[in-house]
Q: What sequence folds into this?
């Protein structure tokens, strides 16, 4: 299958390495230092469970140089979504399918407004990986990709894509109600990202403070109210079961938003907590907890703000 992977961070590098290693015709769309490293040294994927993969790869920052593909794995950060989507038209023909794996619940719809909704599936992923340096991906062992038709159900194209993904060793699952799955991830991930980032601590210390855990649960329950107002039916006991899962996190676990915050990078605030606040306002649901977290993190939206010091 002809595949383009757009955005070669930890997730994009993971998908690119496995799909290319399985013999697919894969082109990487990257930029800056990452593009330079890919061209000079190829892609190096190091995994505890899947082994090490060293690949010479096709990489470019100009989609116009690439013929249309069958599948696009769209892996950029949410704040780069619109600009990246506007560059994708050379990669697309009538049968091209796009799987976005961004945080939040609106990525596929927003890309569809630019490229055409007929090309879009919904997608969400959990990939335990990090970028050691440009072009070098360290995989911690866990990965999962869930995708499906935005209108629901199973189709020939999702079945065909599933075979390719699984054939590359990717734990892929077709979900018959992908919007439900997107909201379930949004409810838990947005709450954890917000609370952990607000407190500036990983899972262990937060789990050790009952009041912090209550804040996490209250935030999730607020998120559920917004989801229900948006027409999503949540499973019975969803928050309780999710809290039990979060209690099992390793002490060092940090949501990606906290990692970005501590590194002084831009935050995916608008696609997560900001979306909960906005949709709550539109649907008449009060979101006092999310609104407070959003306002507290907003100065960090575009990276670390200036931190003035008193004169000597």
A:
């Amino acid at each position: 299958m002809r595949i383009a992977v757009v955005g070669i961070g930890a997730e994009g590098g993971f998908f690119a390495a496995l799909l290319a290693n399985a013999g697919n015709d894969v082109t990487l769309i990257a930029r800056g230092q990452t593009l330079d490293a890919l061209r000079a040294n190829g892609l190096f994927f190091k995994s505890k469970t899947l082994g090490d993969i060293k690949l010479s790869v096709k990489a470019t920052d100009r989609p116009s140089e690439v013929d249309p593909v069958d599948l696009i794995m769209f892996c950029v950060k949410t704040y780069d979504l619109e600009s990246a989507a506007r560059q994708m038209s050379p990669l697309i023909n009538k049968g091209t399918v796009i799987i976005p794996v961004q945080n939040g619940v609106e990525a596929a719809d927003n890309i569809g407004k630019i490229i055409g909704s007929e090309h879009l599936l919904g997608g969400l992923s959990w990939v335990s990986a990090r970028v050691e340096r440009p072009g070098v991906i360290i995989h911690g062992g866990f990965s999962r990709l869930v995708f499906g038709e935005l209108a629901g159900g199973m189709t020939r194209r999702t079945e065909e894509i599933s075979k390719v993904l699984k054939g590359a060793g990717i734990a892929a699952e077709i979900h018959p109600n992908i919007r439900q799955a997107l909201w379930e991830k949004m409810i838990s991930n947005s709450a954890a990202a917000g609370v952990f980032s607000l407190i500036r601590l990983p899972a262990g210390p937060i789990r050790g403070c009952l009041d912090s855990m209550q804040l996490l649960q209250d935030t999730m329950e607020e998120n559920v109210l917004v989801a229900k107002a948006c027409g999503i039916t949540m499973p019975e006991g969803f928050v309780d079961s999710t809290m039990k899962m979060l209690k099992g996190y390793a002490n060092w676990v940090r949501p990606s938003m906290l990692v970005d915050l501590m590194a002084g990078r831009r935050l995916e605030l608008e696609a997560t907590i900001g979306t909960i606040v906005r949709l709550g306002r539109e649907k008449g649901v009060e979101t006092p907890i999310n609104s407070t977290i959003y306002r507290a993190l907003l100065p960090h939206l575009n990276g670390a703000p200036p931190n003035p010091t008193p004169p000597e």
The chain has a mean pLDDT of 96. The first helix runs from residue 10 to 21. The radius of gyration is 20 Å.
